[in-house]
Write a structure and sequence with these properties.
With about 325 residues, the protein is an alpha+beta fold. It has one domain: Jelly Rolls (Sandwich), CATH 2.60.120. It has 8 helices and 13 strands. The strands form 3 sheets. Strands 1, 2, 3, 6, 9, 11 and 13 form a 7-stranded antiparallel beta sheet that branches. Helix 7 runs antiparallel to helix 8. The longest helix is centred in the N-terminal third of the chain and has 16 residues. It is globular, with a radius of gyration of 18 Å.
């Protein structure tokens, strides 16, 4: 039987005060959650990942404007895999979500180079995803110092309690990842005080913790000196179930889930209290590219569904 590392102990857990603020506001900025060697390691890994974007990353990419994004990078790049499965994040996710078992949902990166004009439209995360459920915690990790000017992420405090749901819109307005039935979100930054918009100046190693419903967004990177490289790692509990819907985040690996199943298996591996060998054995052998069948059916769907010019770019990529 293969021996895999146990999840690492966090250098610190969330304090009671942080957890109470998270419960009340729907978001906190936790200082110094990751150490600087980890941040440095992730910077190198992220630049490698940008150099070798997979198909969806190529579709999300707006290189001329200095924007790069990709999802499920952990399937291909070991530094992302190890952070997802074996770092202190699983223990921290368990502290927040509170369930006996925790699974890794997925991760994505959002890179806005100095001067990148692309904003992240105000949105909630849950409409992007082909899932239902509330037990989801996102850890937004910055690899660079960040201010509001350099595209710090901002939130509407308390909006995690709202019943409204808004259309999911990616930074590149990618139509194949846009839930079409929902109304667009207001631009909460237009009346920042009235809307109780909060954000933080952050240092590498600081982490934003937030849930799946809180409204958030960020401006372009108006700094002409500092890149803004951020990673979002997301974990979930058993109430998160597969719920396929039109124009939501595609799952490009075989997952074997039926609508209504709790997320499980090699695409959504258990990470707490420990990993399960059968779920991660294939990934531990080496990079795991998307399945031809899933990728093919996604690109066919994009090509056929009349999503417009953004989709043409993607369907021309394979
Ligand atoms: O970094 C950004 O601009 C967007 C991040 C985000 O929306 C998320 O992680 O859910």
């Amino acid at each position: 039987m293969a021996m895999y590392p146990e999840p690492a102990d966090p250098s610190r857990f969330f304090t009671q005060a942080e957890l109470e603020t998270f419960e009340r506001d729907g978001v906190i900025c936790a200082r110094g959650l990751l150490d600087l060697p980890t941040v440095e390691h992730l910077r190198t890994a992220l630049e490698d990942a940008i150099e070798s974007l997979a198909v969806l990353g190529k579709g999300l990419n707006r290189a001329n404007d200095g924007f790069h994004g990709d999802i499920f990078v952990w399937k291909l790049h070991d530094a992302f895999r190890d952070l997802a499965l074996f770092s202190s994040l699983p223990a921290l996710a368990q502290q927040v979500i509170g369930t006996q078992t925790i699974r890794f949902f997925y991760e994505q990166f959002f890179v806005k180079r100095a001067g990148c004009p692309i904003d992240t439209p105000w949105h909630q995360d849950i409409p992007f995803w082909p899932v239902t459920g509330s037990q989801i915690a996102s850890f937004w990790i910055t690899l660079d110092p960040v201010t509001r000017e350099s595209s710090g992420l901002e939130f509407v405090r308390g909006s995690h309690r709202w019943s409204e749901r808004y259309k999911a819109i990616t930074p590149g307005h990618d139509p194949y990842m846009m839930d079409t039935d929902l109304p667009p979100s207001p631009n909460f930054a237009e009346r920042r005080d009235e809307n109780d918009v909060v954000g933080w100046d952050m240092e590498p190693g600081d982490v934003l913790l937030f849930g799946p419903v809180v409204c958030h967004g960020s401006a372009g990177n108006a700094s002409n000196a500092t890149d803004r490289r951020a990673l979002a790692f997301r974990y979930c509990g058993p109430d998160v179930r597969y719920a396929p819907r039109h124009a939501t985040m595609p799952l490009l690996w075989d997952h074997g889930l039926e609508a209504g199943d709790s997320l499980s298996g090699p695409l959504f591996p258990q990470v707490w209290p420990r990993v399960i060998e059968e779920e991660i054995a294939r990934r531990m052998e080496g990079p795991e590219p998307p399945s031809d069948a899933q990728l093919g059916s996604f690109l066919k769907h994009v090509a056929e569904s009349g999503f417009g010019p953004g989709a043409k770019k993607l369907s021309g990529l394979q």
